[in-house]
Specification:
The structure holds two protein chains of two kinds. By secondary structure, chain A is mainly alpha-helical. Chain A has a single domain, classed as ABC transporter involved in vitamin B12 uptake, BtuC, CATH 1.10.3470. Chain A has 14 helices and two strands, in the order αααααααββααααααα. Chain A is globular and about 70 Å long. The N terminus of chain A is likely disordered. The N terminus of chain B is likely disordered. Chain B contains 18 helices and 24 strands. By secondary structure, chain B is α/β, with parallel strands linked by helices. Chain B has three domains: about 250 residues, 3-Layer(aba) Sandwich (Rossmann fold), CATH 3.40.50; about 180 residues, Rossmann fold (3-Layer(aba) Sandwich), CATH 3.40.50; about 70 residues, no CATH class. Chain B has a six-stranded mixed beta sheet with strand order 6-9-10-3-11-12, with helices on both faces. A six-stranded mixed beta sheet of chain B has the order 18-21-22-15-23-24, sandwiched between helices. The chains are: A mainly alpha, B alpha/beta. The interface between A and B is medium-sized, with 28 and 37 residues.
């Protein structure tokens, strides 16, 4: 079947879509369109901007991918960013006076923030893996809880008073001209690549999403790894939250609202199956870059931000339709 | 042989009979990697029972599912009362008067008996459900069939036999012209089955044509008028039932003498491996079961679908919770252990349903086979997978089991049923296993793979492993086991050894004690 060479143009097109997915084609199309719309789009400086702007979404999308791989999803990633940001900023500001220098408060604040965000993932994991609550309800619930906690802690007011060094290093720092958030994303990517491709745990994520019962009967502790998927998802969202806080130089309860939608969109555009068990890490990062590219291009083309929301929504739906069509094509090839 | 047999096909036999209700010509159905039906001819006359006979995987189910609108044929024509039709859905089939009762139930568990009976054909007055009429009609149908069910009962609380009755009643609802029954007696008691046979007689007199599938020879003989034998997706012969003796049918069905399918096995029962004492499971499927099993023997666990035999195997593997009793494996109490722990101790359970719980269809053969052994040496060290070792191990096993094609990076979903079954067997060979529990190991596989699987089981047994063979397939139990337990409604009904394991004796215990 798949070895046979397709002869017609439609056949070649079909095979290309099945093999590599629609993403590279979409990326190419976006670059061409925005390059024509705006002369500033294809400059080195702007592409570096795109990379930096995409990092937060890329980190969250990598976590979202784990939840999707196991056959679920995480709607609380946005509020995980908020909790992380608020807790991190408050601890940093509060401990600034207690220790000499900036290093200790920064470390404490980052640890506390990431721990708080990861805790959201832990709660999700307990609900989904131990109590068999549907990921939809569980993560919707923790999203509400997280938002409420973040708002209560700050009374809705941004948290100021972090050491300047925090933003200077993690938000605006550059090494060899490349922004710090890009390094963080690369590090997370490497770590997650090793987990997914070279450890039993990564393999189990795919297996559990592909067939939970078969995984259980293969002797896998399915509850443990389901739990781990949500914990790691929370951790990745938390890291994104703390780096975003450095970039904003304030702790904000209102960040990350579009993250659940955007991260799922990045995954699905990157070819992660909503039915679980299928997805590549590299494509997910490309999916996030694609969304970053679209947003940046629309900014340069002076498209209103309200209208941008419409475009992202349309793209997500188109990606899901493409996923469906791809699945149907695969079925047809099987027949 | 085949050429001469084709002559007594439908065209030759009784050409002057009444026009057929259904006439199928050259019907083919291809699935990925398998030809399930290959140019099959078949016809059904008013007022006859036409038995479709064949092994698991011969194409019986595909044939009737195509007739009932579940599958669309790849090639061939279906004529319904002389008119060419393209049956594109179950709904369409029903409109044509074709009703089917499948082995897998099409009931909505949360709805009541009457709601299920009229699902898709609700009685409506002024746009609202006429619940009184529904209740009355449902009661009428149940009374006519003599099924002791209440229309307002929820289906999920019914036993498997009762659900079977609802399924049958559903097929009788619309007064069909063609009735397809796939193993309808599989979970009925003798009395309920008698009632069904009486109904079939009655429907025959009304001119209804009935397609009947059953693995029980006496049943086929009793109600069948004609029989069509399928083998490997092809029609081998169509005969009048009284022309065909059992030996002929078996030979047509298998295409060979029966001893060729089943290997000779040298049993050497040794130390006791498994001991089950008064086991009851939390799901209620097993009420009280005690059995034991030694290394170097094949012990059968036979019984009807739903008698709890599968749950005994699952409980041993820790996949079903035990409510009472104890399970000892290799001298240690393992009641309540997890599947992971049981694999570590050397017990492997092979589930009956590949798609549902055996394999991760969207992943490769390599990943599937390695799954039970991935977290320990030699496949991984210090938490990192040795992908070279993994590939070598899986390639070796693919060679040993003759996986076709030998493409270990291909997704499991693109392999045929028989080869998927081989992938499942390979999973058991990645670990050091002392006791294999095979749960319906040959469901839906072709004869060739069957032979390979039986040889595989023989080799395991002769190299000293213990084997618990859970099967609804009677010949399998008769030919492969040296001892057999027969279960009925969650209890052991009989324990037979050696020459005691005969078709009559095993079948007799499939039903209530004393009955049959």
């Amino acid at each position: 079947m798949s070895e046979a060479m397709p002869r017609t143009a439609a056949g070649i097109w079909r095979h290309a879509v099945l093999r590599i997915g629609v993403l590279p084609l979409l990326l190419l199309l976006a670059v061409v369109v925005f390059g024509l719309l705006s002369p500033n789009f294809l400059t080195g400086q702007n592409l570096l901007n795109v990379a930096r702007q995409s990092t937060f979404l890329a980190m969250v999308a990598m976590g979202q991918m784990l939840a999707l791989l196991t056959g679920g999803f995480d709607l609380s990633v946005g509020k995980t960013l908020a909790v992380t940001s608020v807790v991190g900023a408050m601890v940093m500001a509060a401990s600034k006076g207690l220790f000499p220098g900036a290093a200790v408060p920064i470390a404490l604040g980052m640890l506390a923030g990431v721990a708080a965000g990861t805790l959201v993932g832990v709660v999700n994991g307990i609900g989904v893996a131990l109590f068999d609550i549907s990921p939809f309800m569980m993560t919707l619930g923790t999203a509400s809880i997280g938002f409420g906690v973040a708002l209560t802690l700050t009374s809705g007011v941004p948290v100021y008073g972090m050491p300047d060094a925090f933003g200077d290093i993690f938000g605006f720092g550059r090494l060899f001209g490349i922004p710090a958030p890009v390094y963080v994303t690369a590090l997370l990517y490497l770590g997650l690549y090793v987990v997914l491709s070279w450890t039993p745990m990564g393999r189990y994520f795919y297996a559990i999403g592909g067939n939970l019962k078969a995984s259980m009967l293969s002797g896998i502790n399915t509850r443990l790894y389901l739990f781990m998927a949500y914990v790691l998802c929370g951790f990745l969202a938390a890291v994104a939250g703390i780096i975003l806080t450095a970039r904003l130089e304030t702790g904000e309860a209102n960040i990350g609202a579009s993250m659940p939608l955007d991260s799922i969109a990045a995954c699905v555009i990157g070819g992660v199956s909503l039915r679980g068990g299928v997805g590549r890490l590299g494509s997910v990062v490309l999916g996030a870059v694609f969304i970053g590219l679209i947003q940046n291009g629309m900014d340069l083309a002076r498209i209103e931000s309200y209208l941008q929301e419409v475009v992202i929504g349309v793209l997500l739906i188109l990606a899901v339709i493409a996923d469906r069509l791809r699945y149907r094509l695969l079925l047809k090839l099987k027949d | 042989m085949a050429a001469s047999l084709h002559q007594d096909g439908p065209a030759a036999a009784d050409a002057a009979g009444p026009a057929p209700l259904l006439a199928v010509a050259g019907l083919s159905k291809h699935f990925p990697g398998v030809v399930a039906l290959d140019a099959v001819d078949f016809d059904l006359r008013p007022g006859e029972v036409h038995v479709v006979f064949g092994e698991n995987g011969a194409g019986k189910s595909t044939l009737i599912q195509t007739l009932a609108g579940v599958h669309r044929p790849t090639a061939g024509t279906i004529r319904c009362r002389g008119r060419a039709v393209e049956i594109d859905s179950v709904h369409h089939a029903r409109q044509l008067g074709i009703s089917a009762v499948f082995q897998e139930f099409s009931l909505v568990p949360q709805l009541t008996v009457e709601e299920n009976l009229f699902l898709g054909a609700e009685i409506v007055a002024w746009g609202l459900l006429d619940k009184r009429a529904l209740r009355r009609r449902a009661q009428e149908i149940l009374d006519r069939l003599g099924f002791p069910l209440l229309p307002q009962q929820r289906v999920q609380y019914l036993s498997r036999a009762e659900q079977q009755m609802v399924e049958i009643a559903k097929a009788f609802r619309a007064e069909p012209a063609v009735l397809i029954l796939d193993e309808p007696t599989a979970s009925l008691t003798e009395r309920e089955a008698e009632r069904l046979f009486a109904l079939i007689e009655q429907e025959k007199r009304n001119g209804v044509g009935i397609v009947y599938i059953s693995h029980r020879m006496d049943e086929n003989r009793r109600i069948g008028d004609r029989v069509t034998v399928l083998r490997d997706g092809r029609r081998v012969a169509t005969l009048a039932m009284d022309e065909a003796d059992d030996e002929r049918l078996l030979q047509l069905m298998t295409g060979r003498v029966i001893t060729q399918i089943f290997p000779q096995i040298a049993f050497a029962p040794a130390r006791r491996l498994l001991e089950i004492e008064r086991l009851a499971t939390a799901d209620g499927a097993v009420a009280e079961v005690s059995l034991e099993l030694g290394a170097g023997e094949i012990v059968g666990l036979a019984g009807l679908v739903g008698c709890g035999k599968s749950e005994v195997g699952r409980a041993c593997f820790g996949a079903t919770a035990a409510a009472a009793g104890r399970i000892r494996f290799d001298g240690e109490d393992v009641t309540g252990a997890t599947p992971g722990a049981m694999l570590d101790r050397g017990l492997f359970y092979l589930p009956p349903d590949r798609r549902e719980e055996g394999l991760v269809m969207v992943r490769s053969v390599r990943e599937n086979v390695a799954l039970p052994a991935l977290s320990r040496p030699p496949l991984s060290r210090f938490g990192v997978i040795d992908r070279g070792a993994e590939r070598r191990r899986v390639r070796d096993l693919a060679d040993r089991l003759n996986l076709q094609p030998r493409a270990i990076e291909r997704d499991v979903q693109y392999f045929s049923g028989g080869n998927q079954q081989k992938v499942m067997l390979a999973k058991g060979l990645t670990r050091d296993i002392k006791l294999f529990i095979f749960d319906e190991p040959t469901v839906g596989v072709d004869v060739g793979t069957r032979v390979a699987i039986y040889a595989f089981i023989r080799d395991l047994c002769q190299s000293g492993a213990g084997i618990l063979l859970i099967s609804s397939d009677l010949p399998e139990i008769l030919h492969l086991t040296n001892r057999t337990y027969v279960m009925y409604r969650g209890r052991i009904q009989a324990h037979l050894a050696g020459a005691e394991i005969t078709q009559d004796r095993v079948l007799a215990h499939f039903f209530e004690r004393g009955a049959a």
